[in-house]
């Protein structure tokens, strides 16, 4: 996540400072606040978190690290920013939802999460991301940006499209996803345009299935192999996963309503694969 922000800031010639734990251990209460006290920063972005490698199944084996990175750290950053009166943004996750609203529409920001410790048999990762948002309840001068299954044109181990290409059999369900470059630009513009602080779903409008993505892969000749698909989520859980997955649709109309553009999901997947970089 941090590398995507760096790429954007460098490309736009926006001055920024990337803080490492080797320089300041920002996980320890007080250290980040002390660092910010002597700074002249206008805005802080928390892009840190624990996702597990190669996927969220790893979070089940590293629960302490997952809890610290996703639930405790946001509170530490909140205290530091509020103590120094610095506005800030937190990269959260849409993985705290499952499915769609009863009418089939995407979840809105005010909808109560239904894939978290308080409501469902969720993954530990999703549970900690839900706790992270609870820690930020009532935060002042704070944006909470919900990312969902990030992808872009750069082939790599954290790219959703790259991950799909590695498997022969996929789970074919509807999901909202986020183009990483558009996510970064939209979150930055939310600060530059000074839209109201609060929670925003930052996903490309609409939803898409794994099968639809693989068809675009074949059309663009990025990956032409024949994929198979699990018959349902029960089969997927039995054969390919250790912990439940969040599959959900989010409504991103709130942030777009403030004039911040996000490309329709099928269109942006096509554009991404046409510009694929190995």
Describe the overall structure.
The mean pLDDT is 94. The chain has helices spanning 2-11, 31-37, 63-83, 124-135, 160-166, 180-192, 210-220, 233-239, 253-256, 265-274, and strands at 44-46, 88-93, 142-147, 150-151, 169-170, 178-179, 198-201, 228-229. With 278 residues, the chain is of the alpha/beta class. The longest helix is centred in the N-terminal third of the chain and has 21 residues, at 63-83. The protein has a domain at 2-150 and 177-204 and 248-263: NAD(P)-binding Rossmann-like Domain (Rossmann fold). The chain is built from ten helices and eight strands. Helix content is 37%, strand content 10%.
Summarize this structure briefly:
The chain is an alpha/beta fold and 278 residues long.
Q: Which CATH class of the domain at 2-150 and 177-204 and 248-263 is shown?
A: Alpha Beta
Tally of DSSP β-strands = 8
Radius of gyration: 19 Å
Helix percentage range: 25-40%
CATH superfamily of the domain at 2-150 and 177-204 and 248-263: NAD(P)-binding Rossmann-like Domain
In spatial order, strands of the major sheet run 1-2-3-7
Low-pLDDT regions: none
**Would you identify the CATH architecture of the domain at 2-150 and 177-204 and 248-263?**
3-Layer(aba) Sandwich
H/E series: HHEHEHEEHEEHEHEHHH
Mean pLDDT: 94
């Amino acid at each position: 996540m941090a590398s995507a922000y760096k790429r954007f800031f460098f490309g736009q010639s926006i001055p920024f400072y990337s803080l490492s734990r080797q320089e300041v251990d920002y996980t320890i209460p007080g250290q980040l606040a002390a660092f910010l006290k002597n700074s002249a920063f206008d805005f802080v972005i928390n892009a840190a978190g624990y996702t597990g490698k190669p996927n969220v199944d790893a979070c089940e084996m590293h629960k302490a690290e997952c809890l610290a990175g996703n639930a405790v750290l946001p509170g530490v950053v909140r205290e530091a920013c509020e103590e120094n009166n610095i506005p800030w943004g937190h990269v959260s996750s849409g993985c705290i939802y499952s499915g769609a609203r009863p009418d089939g529409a995407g979840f809105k920001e005010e909808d109560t999460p239904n894939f978290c410790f308080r409501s469902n048999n969720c993954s530990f990762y999703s549970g900690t991301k839900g706790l992270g948002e609870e820690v930020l309840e009532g935060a002042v001068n704070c944006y909470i940006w919900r990312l969902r299954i990030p992808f872009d044109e750069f082939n790599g181990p954290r790219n959703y499209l790259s991950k799909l290409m590695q498997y022969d059999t996929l789970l074919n369900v509807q999901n909202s996803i986020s183009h990483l470059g558009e996510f970064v630009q939209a979150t930055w513009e939310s600060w530059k345009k000074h839209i109201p602080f609060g929670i925003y779903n930052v996903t490309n409008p609409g939803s898409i299935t794994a099968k639809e993505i693989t068809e675009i892969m074949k059309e663009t000749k990025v990956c032409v192999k024949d994929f198979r698909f699990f018959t349902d989520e029960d089969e997927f859980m039995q054969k390919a996963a250790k912990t439940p997955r969040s599959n959900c649709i989010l409504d991103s109309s709130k942030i777009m309503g403030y004039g911040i553009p996000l490309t329709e999901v099928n269109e942006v997947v096509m554009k991404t694969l046409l510009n694929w970089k190995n």
